[in-house]
UniProtKB/TrEMBL annotation:
It comes from Artemia franciscana (Brine shrimp). PROSITE patterns: AGC_KINASE_CTER, PROTEIN_KINASE_ATP, PROTEIN_KINASE_DOM, PROTEIN_KINASE_ST, ZF_DAG_PE_2. Its cofactor is Mg(2+). GO terms for molecular function: ATP binding; Rho-dependent protein serine/threonine kinase activity; zinc ion binding. GO terms for cellular component: cleavage furrow; cytoplasm; cytoskeleton. The lineage of its organism: Eukaryota, Metazoa, Ecdysozoa, Arthropoda, Crustacea. Gene3D superfamilies: 1.20.5.340, 3.30.60.20, Phosphorylase Kinase, domain 1, Transferase(Phosphotransferase) domain 1. Residues 525-534, 992-1019 have a biased composition (Polar residues). CDD domains: C1_ROCK, STKc_ROCK. This is Rho-associated protein kinase let-502.
Length: 1019
């Protein structure tokens, strides 16, 4: 073969076999399945090329799916977690019977929220980390809906569960913090940053050691070791300030953000809460950004060492100074991790603080129960063109135990070498002959047999090594369990010592109590002796009383007749007592209702009082505002008066100045005319002077010159005076303009003050109206309060009277019980003298009874009472109900509709059945609605009782009939055969009077009716 082509094929084969290369075998198989899945839609299959492709590879795709690992290879045991993109299931491999944790990620959610989905990073970290501090990935595969990641199952649960079950001491916190640092060191060495370090993502394996999980937020750093992302990921309580800043696109961060979360985690383990917790998310973020001032250690937690506080402060600091920004080694050197039990190199062999107590490899006692979500999953919509929804997931498939191609490659190298040797032997065969060829074949067979033996030995050695490693792990687990059991035994021994001390103290107390009991018994023995003496004296008294009893028995025969009458009175008393008890229960109900109403009225009165106090305060404030407004109005009116006077004064000043200006103007004009006249006269004088002759009188010339000099001085004075007047006039004009401006300004201020005065007047009127309304409301409320107080006083009087009635009833009941106790003893003596011991049973409600004439008055009273009850005005009959109009002032619900049927002052009309106590709106009966159920209390007012007396013979029966007939006639009853007018009465018709006892008085037990005592006397 061409060496160049052979090297290319080897390079291509190397890429096929490299699980990290994008051209590995799983990636190529994913490509076929993704293309089939994205093209297998009705709208896309219409394309001829796609149809040809699907016809060729559709069967191949199905075969690939069946031959590769898939969800059907696992059995679901329980759902142990649920997140934003999917859920985590505990599963068991059907072929190997091993237990795994399988994470399901929805492809649809991954595509929809691609900015926060980092499933590639999570897969690569778990698949290629090879660290004992990170959860390992065993399989990764996919179907049309989900991505599946099968990883180690951590039966110890997370650290949140541990912190909720134990008070974590500093020793435990040091151990778990060290293991978290080792896990982060492994992730950072791979070039990733976790960004969501928290106790929820720290899991414990079967031996109790910690492993880091949930790498869905991990991100690979750039070449400078930093991350540039404008998406703030993580949990709010554990997120670092630089990650929060990056949300606005301002900051970058590196692996030091994970050590911030470690500081928060360590603080939470030692204190019990996160350091920057707040009621709102904004408060938490504000504390994180101001961590220099908001980091506090609580005063009530004293068991935190200074080393632990120093480590937490160095973790929760600025990223430029944070411990760990230069690597995990500087974290390991911190004094907090110094101890005499383990180091960072030997911590894996150390027994953890808590070793999970497991019942099997599928124990889930350390995980919360999560219900299976049966809601339909969101899936990709049916595309109308090629979309490629499965293309982003090509190459996701991974198998940790997939070594078949490498074995084939290794095995193929051996035959190739052997073939090369065979080819060389064939070349030599041409030279050396048939004997050498035979030897070479024998040598080839020996080499092949040796190769097969070596392969078998290698397989057996591999199996033995796996068995040895499994045994070693089992022994390590047993050793860890034994150490844990030793600690438990020591703890139990300490508890036993404490219990022993407690038992000794309790024994001492028991002995002391025993001595006290013995002393008490001696005292009781002496008191018993006194009691025996007392008993002997009492026995003597009993003998004397027996003698008296015999004497009393003689006198008792005389009182039998009196007892018969007393028995009848007792029956009447019982009836009266029952009535009183009914009234007593009604009064109790009324009292309860009144107490409830009083409490509600008290609350209303309190509310009214508070409202009145508020209204009084408000009225005082309004009065103050009114006084202030009146003062302001007076001030403004004074100001207005001053402004009017000032404006009038300024107007007068303007008129005066105008007059003065006019006079000055007139003077100026006159002076100007005079000046012009002087000039004209001067010119004329000059002209006259020129025409004078020299021989004129010099005296006259001198006089004219003197006149001229005087006129010049007068003209100069006039000019100076005119200039002064002009200056004064200009100044007055300026003053006039200023005064006019002041006048306009004061007029505008006057208008504003007038408007303010109007608005204040309106406001004052409004406040006066409000005050009047408030006074009216207060008057109404005071009248209502007085009405409520009067009602309260009336209710208190009613309650007092009800209490007095109850007290009287209780006294009468006590007297009745005393009377009944005295008569019961007499009844027992009389029952011993009865002639027969028959059993009486009341089976049905039958015939009525007629009272004696002397009882007609009481019967008439009872019947009239019953008739007044049944003939109340406004009584309505509907479906067996006897409905009475009523109004409810306390909270009451309608039996038909949810509308309220009560109001404190204006309740709506309502009806109440006096039998079953059903309550409904009156509108339901007036509108003839069908929602009212029939009455549940039905009774026959014509009810009576039949008495069955069992006798052993006919003679005895006739004897009883005669005696009962005599007794009935003596009691005033009449037979039911004839009416008073002589007509015959039907046996079904009642022979009693019109009186009917109420349903509550019907005796429901199997005893005789009310006059059974009289019947017994007749016997």
């Amino acid at each position: 073969m061409d060496p160049n082509r052979l090297s290319k094929l080897k390079e291509l084969e190397k890429k096929f076999l490299d699980p990290r290369d994008v051209l590995n075998t799983d990636c190529l198989l994913d490509s076929i399945q993704a293309l089939i899945g994205d093209c297998d839609h009705p709208a896309i299959r219409r394309m001829k090329n796609v149809e040809l492709f699907l016809n060729r590879y559709d069967g191949v795709s199905s075969k690939i799916t069946n031959l590769r690992i898939k969800p059907d290879d696992f059995t679901l045991i329980k759902v142990i977690g649920r997140g934003a993109f999917g859920q985590v299931q505990l599963v068991r491999n059907k072929n190997t019977d091993k237990v795994y944790a399988m994470k399901l990620l929805s492809k649809y959610e991954m595509i929809k929220r691609s900015d926060s989905a980092f499933f590639w990073e999570e897969r690569d970290i778990m698949a290629h980390s090879n660290s004992e501090w990170i959860v390992q990935l065993h399989f990764a595969f996919q179907d049309s809906k989900y991505l599946y990641m099968v990883m180690d199952y951590m039966p110890g649960g997370d650290l949140v569960n541990l912190m909720s079950n134990y008070d974590v001491p500093e020793k435990w916190a040091r151990f778990y913090c060290a293991e978290v640092v080792l896990a982060l060191e492994a992730i950072h060495r791979m070039g990733f940053v976790h960004r969501d370090v928290k106790p929820d993502n720290m899991l414990l394996d079967a031996s109790g050691h910690l492993k880091l999980a949930d790498f869905g937020t991990c991100m690979k750093v750039d070449s400078d070791g930093l991350i540039r992302s404008d998406v703030a990921v993580g949990t709010p309580d554990y997120i670092s300030p630089e990650v929060l800043k990056s949300q606005s696109g301002e900051g970058v961060y590196g692996k030091e953000c994970d050590y911030w979360s470690v500081g928060v985690f360590l603080y939470e383990m030692l204190v019990g809460d996160t350091p920057f917790y707040a009621e709102s998310l904004v408060g938490t973020y504000g504390k994180i950004m101001d961590h220099k001032n908001s980091l506090r250690f609580p005063d009530d937690v004293d068991d935190i060492s200074d080393k632990a506080k120093d480590l937490i402060k160095k973790f929760l600091s600025d990223r430029t100074k944070r411990l760990g920004r230069n690597g995990a080694e500087e974290v390991k050197r911190h004094p907090f991790f110094e101890n005499d039990q383990w180091t960072f190199n030997t911590i894996r062999e150390c027994v953890p603080p808590v070793v999970p107590d497991l019942n099997g490899d599928d124990d889930t006692s350390n995980f919360d129960d999560i219900e299976i979500d049966d809601s339909p999953d969101e899936n990709f919509p049916q595309p109308k063109a090629f979309v490629g929804n499965h293309l982003p997931f090509i190459g996701f498939t991974y198998s940790k135990d997939y070594q078949l191609l490498s074995r084939v490659a290794n095995s193929s190298n051996q035959p190739r070498d052997i073939t090369d040797k065979g080819s060389s032997s064939e070349n030599n065969n041409n030279k050396l002959g048939a004997e050498q060829a035979l030897k070479l074949r024998q040598r080839l067979e020996e080499l092949e047999s040796k190769y097969q033996a070596v392969v078998r030995e290698l397989d057996s050695t591999t199996r033995m090594q796996e068995l040895m490693s499994n045994e070693h792990r089992e022994l390590e687990k047993q050793a860890a369990l034994l150490r844990h059991e030793l600690k438990e035994a020591q703890r139990k021994h300490e508890n036993e010592l404490e219990n022993k001390k407690k038992l000794e103290s309790s024994l001492f107390e028991t002995r002391k109590r025993l001595e006290d009991e013995q002393n008490r018994r001696t005292r009781e023995q002496t008191s018993n002796q006194q009691v025996t003496d007392r008993i002997s004296t009492l026995e003597k008294q009993v003998g004397e009383l027996n003698e008296k009893l015999k004497a009393e028995s003689d006198s008792h025969n005389k009182t039998r007749r009196q007892f018969a009458d007393a028995n009848l009175n007792l029956v009447n008393k019982e009836q009266a007592i029952e009535d009183l008890m009914e009234r007593f229960s009604c009064l109790q109900k009324t009292r309860d209702q009144l107490e409830v109403e009083i409490s509600s009225l008290n609350s209303i009165v309190d509310n009214e009082r508070s409202g009145r106090s508020q209204e009084a305060k408000r009225s005082l404030e309004l009065e103050k505002q009114k006084v202030l407004l009146q003062n302001e109005v007076e001030r403004l009116s004074d100001k207005e008066k001053h402004a009017v006077e000032e404006s009038r004064r300024l107007a007068e000043e303007v008129v005066r100045l105008e007059k003065k200006g006019a006079s000055l103007d007139y003077e100026l004009r006159s002076m100007t005319q005079k000046y012009h006249a002087e000039v004209d006269s001067h010119t004329q004088t000059k002209r006259a002077k020129a025409g004078l002759r020299e021989e004129e009188n010099t005296e006259e010339v001198k006089g004219l010159q003197n006149n001229l000099i005087e006129e010049k001085s007068a003209r100069q004075n006039a000019e100076c005076l005119a200039e002064e007047k002009e200056r004064q006039l200009s100044m007055m004009a300026v003053d006039l303009r200023q005064l006019q401006q002041q006048i306009s300004k004061m007029e505008s201020e006057l208008k504003q003050e007038i408007e303010k005065n109007k608005s204040l007047s309106n406001l004052l009127e409004n406040e006066g109206a409000k005050k009047a309304v408030l006074h009216l409301e207060m008057a109404n409320m005071s009248s209502e309060v007085s009405l409520l107080k009067s009602r309260e006083r009336q209710l208190s009087r009613d309650v007092e009277s009800a209490r007095e009635t109850i007290k009287n009833l209780e006294e009468s009941v006590i007297r009745y019980k005393q009377m009944k106790s005295s008569t019961d003893s007499q009844m027992r003596e009389l029952q011993d003298q009865l002639e027969t011991e028959q059993h009486f049973s009341v089976l049905y409600a039958g015939e009525g009874e007629t009272k004696r004439p002397e009882e007609a008055s009481s019967v008439a009273e009872m019947s009239s009472l019953s008739l007044t009850e049944t003939s109340k005005p406004g009584l309505l009959h509907h479906k067996g109900h006897e409905l009475l109009p009523i109004s409810f002032h306390m909270p009451t619900t309608c039996e038909v509709c949810p509308k309220p049927m009560w109001h404190m002052f204006k309740p709506p009309p309502a009806l109440e059945c006096r039998r079953c106590r059903i309550k409904v709106h009156r509108d339901h009966l007036e509108k003839q609605e069908e929602g009212i159920a029939p009455c549940k209390v039905n009774y026959d007012s014509n009810a009576a009782k039949e008495i069955l007396i069992m006798t052993p013979s006919t003679e005895e029966q006739q004897l009883w009939v005669n005696r009962l007939s005599k007794r009935l006639k003596a009691a005033g009853f009449r037979p039911n055969s004839h009416n008073p007018d002589g007509t015959r009465v039907s046996p079904r018709e009642s022979t009693r009077s019109a009186f009917r006892p109420s349903s509550s008085h019907i005796q429901k037990s199997s005893t005789l009716p009310g006059n059974n005592g009289a019947l017994r006397n007749s016997k």
